[in-house]
## 1
Amino acid sequence: MRARDLGVHIGDGEPGRRNTIADVEDVRVGHTTLIEGDAVRTGVTVVIPPELPLFAGCHRLNGNGELTGLEWVRESGLLTTPIGITNTFSVGVVRDAIAAESADPDSWALPVVGETYDGFLNDIRAQRVTAEHVRAALASASDAVEEGNVGGGTGMICHGFKAGIGTSSRLVGEYTVGVLVQANYGSRKRFRVDGVPVGDLIGEGIAGPTPGDDSGSIIGIVATDAPLLPHQCDRLAQRAGLGVGRMGGTAAHTSGDLFLAFATGNRGLESGRREIELRMLADTEITPFYEAVIESTEEAILNAMLAAETMTGRDGNTAYALEPEVLLEALSRRS
């Protein structure tokens, strides 16, 4: 189930054909999901751009989290590896596996790998994600993007409901903007959908793991086929935070809210030539892309919650799904 399946349309923009990050041509997403016994609820997700390197930028809304490789992104303006997303304690193994898989034997790699904390449902200290799981996610990557309790999002919780991986897209003229999130943040009471305070309307009738707690994290990946330069990618990444804010996120002290944007509109950036011809969208034309990122981020978070299913994990802890009828009933009371 996705937001638009329920007739819930976020904003005014038109989504791409799939309404996923894979609407940006040749972007692929892969997952390995680990659900084992009573306590393993985790995994890894990878986002694979069509060509590397690509111009990229990033933004930190609150820094109690990790997205590796960002110093080189800031320094060079380039994304040079696929992107991994997993749990907090598995960043190292995912980073190392992507480095081993993506690097030429005679070159180096600084992989971009993000995390959010799944320790409520998952025995995170067991560190069950392995390099083989990363290789499987890379091998399975396609333009059919699964959402909810999959990959790195398997054990994640958002606004007091089960969540995980979500995605959405918007068309901007002849270009496309797509967003993928791993959502694991926010309190029930602040939960908003298209401006409606659905968290207050739902209340605590559905049990949440940590009532009133605004902690947690979100990783957001923005892709576009527009010809953006690195400083423009920075600006797109920054706007993902506005989408989180529209959903009720506060980027709390304990939250890691980290965003990366890459643009596929310029290719062949390691051509071996002394000079490279580039295209650039005029800065005066970029505001509609901001709107696309904000709307896509908001809808991706909601899709992550609607696609997720109730899950019980470590120590019998349970995170309950946001049932479609509950959301629709709350939205019907918007007046």
Note: The chain has one domain: 3-268+280-327.
## 2
Amino acid sequence: MDTDISSQIKTIEVVVVDYSLDLVGAIAILVVGWIVAGWIKLAVSKALTRLPRSDATVTRALSAVARYLVLAMVLVAVLAQFGVQTASILAVLGTMGLAVGLALQGTLSNVAAGFMLLILRPFRIGDYIDAEGVAGTVEEIGLFSTEFVTFDGLYLVVPNNQIWTKAITNYSRLPTRRLDVGVGIAYSDDIDKALSVLMDLMTGDERVLEDPEPKVMVAELADSSVTLNLRCWTTTDDYWDFRFELKKLAKERVEAAGCTIPFPQRDVHVIGGPVIGGAASAAA
């Protein structure tokens, strides 16, 4: 009886020692693999950054993919440490991948859309875009979602498929943009003088590009004013600041030239008919 107990204790000791060694080895592989995955991500990022035509969007995405591949190999190595056969692991992963793929078709569509965004690159990190209501500055393009910062400083995450299937307007892609500003003057004002003053305003500002040349035209004969339109081209970086300033300067220049910027008004003329008060008195 004592012999059986002693043999069982020795067996347990051997199993504990072997399992402890496997556990320590698995932890060591996991720690080292995690560190190596970080190094690989950093190395890929630096290598892609040194390329002559490197792109921050593609660099971040590929470095993240490289890290995930290393972590996947680490997971396989950890399971192999406990005696799980590699062939069995791959078979299980394949089966799990098929099941997960069928269950997460929407998620996989986001991955496919993410790859399309990275390949075709309708926008890059740092661009301001509007995808039919989804608007903001692009911060990160991931495999599943894209991160934005809105114009009012909010953090926004949108699934890639919701962006890829929409019409995308990229406000930052091209170096120049056309700027149109409307100014109304009174019908009694000198139109030629106002046009000349506004043209001088644009030609005298270095932010206005010479090609295409700036123009001022009569855009509309409105109900209460003659609407003049200032049209010029400027750089994308200067666009918004110059747009707001040009409105202010246009108002100041036309007023300094003796023109009036009218506000909507209506004259009412009463032709004939009794006065309401008098009619009421007569009826009484």
Note: The longest strand covers residues 176-185.
## 3
Amino acid sequence: MAFSILNNIPALQAESALNTTQMHLNSTLQQLSTGQKINSGSDDPAGLSIANGLSANIAALNQSAQNANDGVGALQVADGALSQITNLLNTAISLATEASTGTVSSSQRTSLDAEYQQILQEINRIGTTTTYNGTSVFTANTTSIYLTDGSSAGSSTITASVGVMSTTQLQLNGTVLTGTDGTNAQSALTKIDAAISTIANDRGTIGASVNRLQDAASVINNQVQNLTAAENQIMATDIPTAVTNLSQQSILEQTGIAALAQANSQEQTVLKLLQ
């Protein structure tokens, strides 16, 4: 057996093995402390790339779900306003019916018409001042709800239209309940009844759009759940495996330190040859 004091090969080997063990031990401790299996690009480059892509998809989908919910909110505001207009028109029906009968005097029709005109003004006010997030909900413009997972293939748009709401739109502008007989009131009554049907149809269209947006949000939430599970599989630390590795590497560290000490002590044998 040759002895040398220039290089202690066993000590170098023991030191290299100990450094490797400590590197793995530090990585395992980091995984346990962060809960993430991948803490840097060097841990798993391919896995990190996939996980980052999934994270971007999840972020886009979460915002898309919010977009859909915002669309539902705007449509529900419009539906609530139309419900109030329906109540006003039901009152107008009663007024016009009363003014249509021959037992009502002209002055009484004038009083009934004064209340009726206030109803028409309120309908116009609701149509112009009802807003959602600072934007009028009753507009001729079509509202586009953008949904995406962050990719061009996973992008789509749902359109919803409420339309303008006014007495002109309902063909009630200029209607009156006044007159010496009930002719004007009867004409107004026919138009009010048609307006109620128009409002009912509009609410049905809005309801269908609300249902579609809610269904879309439900699908998106399911996508988020599945993608989050996939990301978790890539990124999350497998705790039982990490604990097992920690025990193994802790033992290897202790044996490595002992081996390094033993390798260094072998050089002391050379001194004995000089005694």
Note: The chain has two domains: 9-35+237-274, 64-235.
